[in-house]
Amino acid sequence: MSEQYVVTEQDQSKRIDKLLTDVIADSSRSQIQGWLKSDVVLVDGKAVKSNYKVQAGDTITWHIPEPEPMDILPENIELDIVFEDEDVIVVNKPSGMVIHPSAGHYSGTLVNALLYHCQDLSGINGVERPGIVHRIDKDTSGLLMVAKNDLAHKSLAEQLSQKSVERKYEAIVHGEIPHEYGTIDAPIGRDTKDRQKMAVVDGGRDAVTHFRVLRHFTDFTLVECTLETGRTHQIRVHMRYISHPLAGDPKYGPRKTLDLNGQALHAKSLGFEHPRTGEWIKFEVEPPKDFQDTLTYLKTRE
Question: Residue 66's pLDDT is what?
Answer without folding.
Answer: 60
